TrEMBL record:
Biological role stated in the UniProt entry: PPIases accelerate the folding of proteins. It catalyzes the cis-trans isomerization of proline imidic peptide bonds in oligopeptides.
Gene3D superfamilies (alphabetical): 1.20.120.1150
SUPFAM superfamilies from the UniProt entry: PTPA-like
Protein name: Serine/threonine-protein phosphatase 2A activator
Source species: Cronartium quercuum f. sp. fusiforme G11
EC number: 5.2.1.8
Keyword Cytoplasm appears in the UniProt entry: yes
Gene Ontology CC annotations of this record: cytoplasm; nucleus; protein phosphatase type 2A complex
Localization terms from the record: Cytoplasm
Length: 343
């Protein structure tokens, strides 16, 4: 089979820069309506999207999360990971799956989704407390849309983006502090990633808006941003190992866990079903270029696509707002110095 052309280059991307603090949004200064609505309708809305405060805040949290992961790196110390998990009091999402054999597996996903929607508010009520109840509609919207479409029975990068928005709201309102950035990726996002992989395997979810061989991954993209960040400050694992089926990566490697998931779901030579990742392994020599390339590609192929962003909704003046006036902008400021990520 002829290899399809590769449309994305990872060779000349500059090293990404990071913020030094996660912005803070005071929930007491937010004003309604705080229920998200559809804002991206066509191509003309994308210009505003990249200027709106809501997306800027999500990107700030993403870059700070990547920095925390990069500085921590990889570990195979199970005890260390256990201590990390126990160090946070954050509720970790864990909805039991019905793993019994299903004749129509996809339909069972609707049952799973209905349970998620039914229990979501009760699960979050104790987490938010009285001071943060105002953000409940916005937070729940992104939570409920983060695991796939219970109507179309599919999952894609837009759903993954919703979970990033969910985590961003928790950080921006200080339900999670900058000290929790590392735990957010290595514990919470990891649990989410594992849950979504299981949903795809058990309920055979269709890829949402997949480009097939012309896309990076049928379902995920953020995992490659976090995963490449993990590998920035080490030299033992190189991008060329992406194409080595016999390479056994550390269990904590998000990047290679995602590669293993692809190999499990797809058949045939790796270069045929995953040519972009194959090209990265063949042509890119360092993880810095991989990481910056993944960020640029995510902005173009996820944030820059109407078919994805039309399903990502914004509030008027909420934590992730589409339009913000001067009064609302005053609630957007850097957190206290003592809340900076521990180096």
């Amino acid at each position: 089979m002829k290899r399809p052309p590769i449309q994305h280059s990872f060779k000349s991307e500059p090293r990404p820069t990071y913020d030094t603090a996660v912005p803070y949004v005071d929930p007491f200064k937010l004003k309604g309506p705080l229920t998200p609505t559809k804002r991206v309708l066509d191509q003309s809305d994308l210009a505003h999207l990249f200027e709106c405060t809501g997306l800027s805040r999500v990107l700030s949290v993403l870059m700070n999360m990547s920095q925390a992961v990069a500085e921590f790196g990889l570990t195979d110390d199970d005890e260390k990971r256990d201590r990390l998990s126990q160090s946070t009091s954050l509720w970790i999402i864990e909805i039991p799956l019905d793993c019994d054999p299903q004749r129509f597996g996809n339909k069972a996903f609707k049952v799973w989704g209905q349970r998620l929607e039914d229990e979501a508010e009760a699960l979050h009520r104790s987490i938010l407390g009285t001071s943060h109840q105002v953000i409940m509609p916005e937070l729940l919207h992104h939570f409920k849309t983060a695991f796939g479409s219970f109507v179309r029975l599919d999952y894609g990068t837009g759903h993954e983006l919703s979970f990033l928005a969910y985590l961003s709201i928790l950080h921006l309102t200080r339900l999670l502090t900058p000290k929790d950035l590392l735990t957010t990726v290595l514990v919470i996002y990891q649990r989410y990633f594992d849950t979504c992989r299981k949903l795809q395997e058990v309920y055979r979810l269709e890829p949402a808006g997949s480009k097939g061989v012309y896309g990076l991954d049928d379902h995920f993209h953020l995992v490659y941003i976090f995963g490449s960040a993990q590998l920035l400050h080490q030299s033992e694992i190189t991008p060329s190992m992406i194409n080595d089926r016999n390479f056994i990566a550390p269990q904590s490697s998000l990047f290679f866990n995602a590669i293993a998931h692809i190999r499990k779901l797809k058949r045939g030579p790796f270069f045929e079903h995953s040519p972009i990742l194959y090209n990265v392994g063949k042509t890119v020599t360092g993880w810095t270029k991989v990481h910056s390339g993944m960020i640029k590609m995510w902005k173009g192929e996820v944030l820059g696509k109407v078919q994805v962003m039309q399903h990502f909704w914004f509030t008027d003046h909420g934590v992730l707002g589409w339009n913000l006036g001067k009064e609302e902008e005053e609630c957007f400021f850097l957190g206290p110095e003592e809340e900076q990520v521990e180096r």
